[in-house]
């Protein structure tokens, strides 16, 4: 008999085939999946493969009373109540590693876009407002010789740091609270305050936890350099968006580049109105290669657990 599995959204054909071979898959294939629909379809399913946009809380886990595994197709898993899953003996898995390079590349795309005002220039050109080359036209800021401050030196933070020498940047890093972090060659660990005060680019790579929610608030933004750029490819609520809009309007920092938002897909209207913010629609891991690898890893996690093997990438205990 095949394993009954609920898949909330379509996945690439390779992993889909592997899943279909061993499982009887119900596909919801709709966005957003309503809680009611999710809860109605869960009874009888041994595995749930879901996206970061689906909140898997106690009530959903109760509806999934037969679940053995919840496989999130994302590295972040703040959408899942991991403690509640553990209490119910449900394994939770995520997709680390496979998206590290794509997310680091996207982070650099955002750093460069903000530093050189590429989206702002493109908007100007498209509305026909470009009058030609001028010595003082749309000047950006150089990265070479500047300091990159990485908040959260995990896998993605390290991959972003590894690319810094190519742009002539020195790297410092900090963790939220006294979170342990491995030594990183060529990068000095400093306090978060030192990082904010001394960095030209501040890039966020922490998971969303109660400790990191609004880590970047008014106070933190006020500590940053007036010429600094804030980049967020982690989770939206790590930054207080209203405070960020205020800091940008008051020119307390020069620019921001965001891939994630507090209430996705909504974006704070004050940020949309500002020229000096690059706004990307949560696409850090969005390459064909990486999204395929993420779905593949989620499927392999499900198959491992359903076949009585240890999961490949279980999330750590809360
Ligand atoms: C994307 O944001 C992820 O957590 O994988």
How would you describe what is shown here?
There is one protein chain. The protein is built from twelve helices and twelve strands. With 318 residues, the protein is α/β, with parallel strands linked by helices. The strands form two sheets. It has a seven-stranded parallel β-sheet with strand order 8-7-6-9-10-11-12, with helices on both faces. A five-stranded parallel β-sheet has the order 2-1-3-4-5. Strand 9, helix 9 and strand 10 form a beta-alpha-beta unit. The longest helix is centred in the C-terminal third of the chain and has 19 residues. It is elongated and about 70 Å long. Bound molecules: glyoxylic acid.
Name its key features.
2 domains; Rossmann fold; 318 residues; 12 helices; binds glyoxylic acid; 34% helix; five-stranded parallel sheet; alpha/beta
List the helices and strands and how they pair.
Blueprint: E1 3-7, H1 13-22, E2 23-27, H2 35-41, E3 47-50, H3 58-63, E4 69-72, H4 82-87, E5 91-93, H5 100-115, H6 118-126, E6 147-151, H7 155-163, E7 170-174, E8 187-189, H8 192-198, E9 201-204, H9 218-223, E10 229-232, H10 241-249, E11 255-258, H11 269-272, E12 277-279, H12 288-306
Helix pairs in contact: 1-12, 5-7
Glyoxylic acid is lined by residues 52, 74-76, 99, 284-285.
Provide the CATH architecture of the largest domain.
Answer: 3-Layer(aba) Sandwich
Spatially, the strands of the biggest sheet line up as 8-7-6-9-10-11-12
Residues in helices, as a percent range: 25-40%
The rough form would be described as elongated
Q: Mean of residue pLDDT?
A: 97
User: Which residues sit in consecutive blocks of at least 5 with pLDDT less than 50?
Assistant: none
Molecules bound to protein: glyoxylic acid
Number of strands: 12
Number of helices: 12
CATH superfamily of the largest domain: NAD(P)-binding Rossmann-like Domain
Measure the end-to-end span: 34 Å
In the residues, how many domains can be counted? 2
- CATH topological fold name of the largest domain: Rossmann fold
Query: Into which percentage range does the β-strand content fall?
Result: 15-25%
Structural class: alpha/beta
CATH class of the largest domain: Alpha Beta
Query: What's the gyration radius in Å?
Result: 21 Å
């Amino acid at each position: 008999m095949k394993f009954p599995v609920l898949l909330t959204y379509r996945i690439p054909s390779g992993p889909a085939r592997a899943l279909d071979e061993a499982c009887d898959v119900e596909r919801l294939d709709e966005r957003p999946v309503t809680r009611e629909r999710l809860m109605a379809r869960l009874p009888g399913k041994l595995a749930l493969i879901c996206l970061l946009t689906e909140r898997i809380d106690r009530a959903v886990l109760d509806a999934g009373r037969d679940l053995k595994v919840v496989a999130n197709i994302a590295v972040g898993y703040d959408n899942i109540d991991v403690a509640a899953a553990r209490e119910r003996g449900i394994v939770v898995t995520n997709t680390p590693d496979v998206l590290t390079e794509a997310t680091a590349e996207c982070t650099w795309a955002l750093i460069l876009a903000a530093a050189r005002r590429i989206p702002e220039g493109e908007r100007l050109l498209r509305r026909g407002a470009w009058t030609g080359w001028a010595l003082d036209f749309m000047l950006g800021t150089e990265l070479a010789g500047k300091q990159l401050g990485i908040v959260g030196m995990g896998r993605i933070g390290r991959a972003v740091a590894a690319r810094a020498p190519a742009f002539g940047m020195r790297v410092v890093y900090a963790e939220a609270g006294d979170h342990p972090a491995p030594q990183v060659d060529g990068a000095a660990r400093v306090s978060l305050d030192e990082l904010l005060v001394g960095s030209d680019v501040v890039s966020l790579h922490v998971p969303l936890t109660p400790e990191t929610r609004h880590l970047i608030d008014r106070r933190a933004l006020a500590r940053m350099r007036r010429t600094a750029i804030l980049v967020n490819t982690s989770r939206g609520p790590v930054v207080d968006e209203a405070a960020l809009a205020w800091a940008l309007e008051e020119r307390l920092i020069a620019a921001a580049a965001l891939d994630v938002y507090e209430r996705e897909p909504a974006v704070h209207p004050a940020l949309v109105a500002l020229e000096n913010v690059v706004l990307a629609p949560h696409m850090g891991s969005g390459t064909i290669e990486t999204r395929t690898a993420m779905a593949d890893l989620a499927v392999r996690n499900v198959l491992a657990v359903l076949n009585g093997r240890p999961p490949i990438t279980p999330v750590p205990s809360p």
